[in-house]
Design goal:
This protein is an all-alpha fold and 449 residues long. 74% of the residues lie in helices and 0% in strands. The chain has helices spanning 3-27, 34-53, 57-75, 82-113, 118-123, 132-148, 156-160, 166-176, 179-186, 188-191, 195-216, 222-242, 246-265, 267-279, 287-308, 315-329, 340-361, 374-396, 401-411, 416-427, 444-448. α3 runs antiparallel to α4, α8 runs antiparallel to α13 (246-265) and α9 (179-186) runs parallel beside α12. The protein is globular and about 60 Å long.
């Protein structure tokens, strides 16, 4: 049933909304548009709650549109900033595209099932092949989720909206961008029988997870780094849905919302932490440290996998093993130096937390096994291997020619957003505001004059 999921997310939205509203009270105090900001913030929060509690397809779409329109006004809180205006413009067009895809999918599902109620629609799926129309509906739902979650190459607006006030960024990253994952969890019985939709998610979201994670490591700005992190985390959440791990995707959604809200609202303290890290940069672990960490992480992961999901996909556990290996190997760096027992205890606590939360959420969020099978597992395992190998190379040999070339491309974001921005402005031109006092570098001749 989707009711427990909806209620759980509604509680999360209420909790985060209270914190963000209280934080905003001091953040925008004295701003000329303070009253308008407060009104749009509460309207947007109400629209999010309305959307997740709706059991009617048209009501869900109406709430989805209201969220987008309210967020658009919040993103333009500083309309004189060109980057903010450009980001809002791209977000506006992408949002309309996602809404069109969602509406088309809703019309197809209504025509097939004869009802607008989501609970009745999903109750009819789980066994047997889907018709061509139902496959198209699942593809459209997956496409809407990919757009909503800012997956490559539709990610640029998410990186540029850091021009908006920090509470708006916290609301966006913690409570709105997750709705793509919620949509897939809601329609899990349909998605699990649609191989084309699952492969669309596996390819686009899988590549986004790898590339956005690597690009994030090249960023200096705290808020920009967090934005790239969100794109990567959303990609991983969509991959979990495509693999049929809906309870893990739900856990990911809840944890990411709380953690990312905390990171944005405490971004000022993150600046000090970043300065401390520059003063005491970490050093690459020795090969012995890597081997010792792997010798501990791999058996621990195998035991957890056998206890939790002996018949499930293996690629998520490969990611867990890689994470624990890095956690244990990096304990000797100058920043995170600590005794081996502390790192081991932390790893054990993380495993216990994962097991406990998974056991709690499994009865609430479940879906049939996906039809993509072992090929999907192999694809995600290859992507995880690519991520770990590239990161390890950049970590151990940052001065090599290959590492420099890869770092340059990653720093440019593979130029995907530049291409997407030019295409967007070509399709729908937008006159951007001009800064009142633009930065200008003086030349030697001017200085001499």
């Amino acid at each position: 049933s989707s009711a427990p999921v909806s209620h759980l997310i509604a509680v999360l939205i209420a909790f985060l909304g209270l914190i963000i509203a209280n934080f905003s009270r001091n953040y925008v105090a004295g701003e000329p548009q303070e009253a308008r900001y407060a009104a749009m913030l509460h309207i947007t929060l109400a629209a999010v709650a309305f959307t997740v509690l709706s059991n009617h397809l048209l009501m869900l779409i109406g709430g989805w549109v209201a969220i987008s329109l309210g967020l658009h006004q919040l993103l333009l809180f500083y309309p004189e900033r060109p980057r903010a205006a450009l980001a809002a413009h791209k977000k506006f067009l992408l949002a309309r595209t996602a809404e069109l895809a969602l509406l088309t999918a809703a019309l197809i599902l209504y025509d097939i099932n004869g009802t607008w109620l989501i609970s009745e629609i999903v109750a009819g799926y789980g066994d047997g092949p889907l018709s061509s129309a139902e496959q198209i509906a699942a593809l459209l739902l997956a496409a809407a989720a990919l757009i909503k979650c800012a997956q490559l190459p539709m990610h640029g607006w998410l990186i540029q909206v850091v021009e908006a006030p920090t509470p708006v960024s916290a609301l966006l990253h913690a409570g709105i961008i997750n709705l793509g994952g919620y949509l897939l969890i809601l329609f899990a019985p349909l998605l699990s029988q649609a191989a084309p939709a699952q492969w669309l998610l596996l390819v686009v979201a899988g590549l986004t997870t790898v590339l956005a994670s690597l690009i994030m490591t090249t960023r200096i700005s705290i808020k920009v780094k967090l934005a790239w992190s969100t794109s990567a985390q959303m990609g991983l959440m969509l991959v979990e849905c495509a693999l049929g791990l809906y309870e893990l995707a739900m856990l990911h959604l809840l944890a990411h919302a709380c953690f990312k809200a905390y990171l944005f609202l405490s971004a000022g303290g993150a600046v000090e932490a970043q300065l401390q890290q520059r003063l005491a940069p970490s050093r690459a672990p020795a090969m012995g440290a890597w081997l010792g960490a792997a010798a501990v992480a791999i058996p621990l992961t195998v035991l957890a996998a056998q206890f939790l999901a002996p018949q499930g996909p293996l690629s998520p556990w490969l990611l867990v093993a890689a994470f624990l290996t890095v956690l244990l190997a990096e304990r000797d760096s100058l920043v995170s130096r600590g005794p081996r027992t502390t790192a081991m205890a932390l790893a054990l606590v993380l495993f216990v937390a994962l097991i406990t939360q998974k056991l709690i959420l499994t009865p609430l969020v479940s879906g049939p096994a996906p039809v993509v099978g072992w090929l999907a597992d192999l694809w995600i395992a290859a992507l995880i291997g690519l991520l770990v190998a590239t990161w390890a190379l950049l970590r151990r040999s940052p001065e090599s020619t290959f590492s420099r070339q890869v770092s340059a491309w990653l720093f440019a974001g593979l130029y995907l957003d530049e291409w997407f921005t030019r295409t967007t402005l070509r399709v729908w031109p937008r006159r951007l505001p001009v800064r009142m006092h633009p930065k200008r570098l003086s030349t030697l001749s001017e200085e001499a004059f």
